Amino acid sequence: MQILPFYLVCDESGSMSGDIDVLNEALLALHNEISTNPTISDKTRFALIGFSDDAAELQQLVDLGEVSQLPKLEAGGFTSFGSAFRVLRSAIERDVPALKAEGHDVYRPVVFFLSDGVPTDGGWEAAHEALLGSAYRPHIIAFGIGTADRSVIGHVATFKAFMQQGDNVKPAEALKEFAGSLTRSIVRSASGGRAGEGMSLQVDDHVPGFTSVSLDKL
Amino acid sequence: MNGDGQLNEEHGGRADAVHLAEHGAGPVGEWPFVQPRAVQWTEQSEPAPPSWPHRAPQAQPAQQPPQYGNYGDYGDYVDYTGGYRAEPAAPLWEPAGAPAVPDAGYAPPAPGRRQSAAVEETVPIAVLPPDADRPGRQPAPGPAAHTGARPPAYPAEPGELTEVGSDLFAAMVPDTVVDGGTVGAAAVRAVSVRGDSHRYAKECRQDSVLLVRVGGLAVLAVADGVGSARYSHRGSAGACRLLVSCLISQADRLTAALLAGDRNAFASCAGVVMGRVAARLQEEADKQDHAPADYATTLRALLVPTDPQHPVRGFLAVGDGGLFRLRAGHWTSLERSADEGAVFDTGTDALPVNFGAPVAELITDGLPGDLLVMCTDGLSNPLVKEPDVAEFLARQWGAGQVPGLTDFLWQTQIRARSYDDDRSVVCLWEGAR
């Protein structure tokens, strides 16, 4: 089987408390869209990692057609990017070999990373670097909302990065657009930009409510 | 074990690797089908069916269809309804005389009996109760089998019929094409079946297949319309058709090159043909006011001399797909991989605009009993990447017998999750006749 794994890494820090329900509703819609579309459910796997003071795999990598619902995100605590990247790395380094051992063709994992603030832990860059040094180095698409730092978001991403547009866009609207963009990316990547020619990562060039962030150059 | 169970044994690959669908598992199987008791497929004790010309003078004038109004000799009438021979010994009609007809309207049909519009004013037609002592449905391939623990999430059969929209051509592309024939001492089977993803998206099949003979040369072609190209279904169909028409003037030269085993002559001639196909496909796009790139398609063909004494086969191709040999149960790819190190390189050469020199090779080391398999990537991908698919097809196709058309379709449809592209394949069994 050909499998494209998606990891959603989501900020659950206290500052998200006002908007976390919007995100939970959007995840419900995403689950519904993906689990009922065989083009996607046969080819993709989805995992959810939440982070605040520390990070946790709320949903291990799974065929969304096989779970009835996704766990809910709950806000509270600080914003430890380092924990998020460590948990993500260990999840990817466990999941990809497991899928390959089952005989599957595994595509490079795709990470959608969302934060509404600046990292509150020191040393997160080292964890980020270790993640990118992994044999299964993922593509990272990073989204910043609220008080997120543009340069930090640009540093986290390896594929594309987006920042919420000024104060005229509400975080709740931005979150809906974020989830919509994630869903579209999963659908388009699995359906094939060029159908029948394997999967290739498809991500919106422009996400409403967001501006594109140029990525760090190495 | 019923007939289905027996069938499963016959068609199964490794028991734990391939899962056979139940007969009647889908809506298609829910018809209240009543098997005419007289249908016999294998038993020798059954008297041979009389032929029409022999039988006809007794019951009706020769060369005329059965006279429904003339049922004076009921016992002699043979019901060929549905193509099955009915039981001559059984009473085929109600006892003499029409049934009592109520004053208002027709008699209701008896339970389990068929009624023909042609005779409903007189009597119900054939009475054929099921018989427990006779075999039930003749074993048929049944719904497609699957590998892996779970079948694909898609329905196994096509959904709602395509609506005629702005692209009439697309609406008229059949979901599935099955074809076959013989070439010299070889037997050919071909299928082009729409992939699950195109069925789900209500899009037409973008693959095409064509089998034809041009003089002393059989042309076996498959084409895979590039998914992102808007009119690639026209491209693939056009490429197959134009290949044949451009080959006509070159058939003698190509045949001579094949018979002489002259690769250079074959390649140069094949290059000319491919160039013409591309030019004419581009013209067709222009005529329709379509961009030529919207007709993007692969094209691969086997050219097989019809002379059974000549074992050389020609292969020409633009774009990806598969060319394999199954010999003694083992698969071998006959194509050199472009770059073993490439990870999922999804780029592909395509007619009519984006291609370099076509692949043109001679296959000179064939043996009787070989199977040559040429296919689009919808089949080559699962064949290469899923060992269970490769083993299943090796067992099905390498059993020493050329499958019938329906069996061949069933075999080609082996399902594997995440492989949802159109599949087209041509199989050539060498020395099968």
Number of strands of chain B: 13
Low-confidence segments of chain B: 1-15, 24-127, 339-347
The level of helicity of chain A is 25-40%
- Low-pLDDT stretches of chain A are none
Largest interface: A-B, 22 and 31 residues
Shape of chain A: globular
Looking at the overall shape, the CATH architecture of chain A is 3-Layer(aba) Sandwich
What is the tally of helical segments of chain B?
10
Strand content of chain A: 15-25%
* CATH fold title of chain A: Rossmann fold
Q: CATH top level of the domain at 154-429 in chain B?
A: Alpha Beta
Number of domains of chain A: 1
- Count of distinct strands of chain A: 8
The CATH homologous superfamily of chain A? von Willebrand factor, type A domain
Structural class of chain A: alpha/beta
**CATH 2nd-level architecture of the domain at 154-429 in chain B:** 4-Layer Sandwich
N- and C-termini, Cα separation of chain A: 34 Å
| Secondary-structure element pattern of chain B, one letter each | HEHEHEEHEEHHHEEEEEEHHHE
Mind explaining what this structure looks like?
The complex is a heterodimer of chains A (218) and B (433). Chain A has 218 residues and is of the alpha/beta class. Chain A has a single domain (2-213), classed as Rossmann fold. Chain A has six helices and eight strands; from the N terminus they run βααββαββαβαβαβ. Chain A has helices at residues 20-35, 38-41, 81-101, 124-132, 150-156, 171-191; strands at residues 2-11, 44-51, 55-62, 105-106, 110-115, 139-144, 160-164, 210-213. The longest helix of chain A is centred in the middle third of the chain and has 21 residues, at 81-101. Chain B has 433 residues and is α+β, with helices and mostly antiparallel strands. Chain B has a domain at 154-429: Phosphatase 2c, domain 1, CATH 3.60.40.10. In chain B, 24% of the residues lie in helices and 18% in strands. Chain B has ten helices and 13 strands. In chain B, the strands form three sheets. A six-stranded antiparallel β-sheet of chain B has the order 3-4-13-12-9-10. In chain B, strands 5-6-7-8-11 form a five-stranded antiparallel β-sheet. The longest helix of chain B is centred in the middle third of the chain and has 25 residues, at 263-287. The interface between A and B is medium-sized, with 22 and 31 residues.
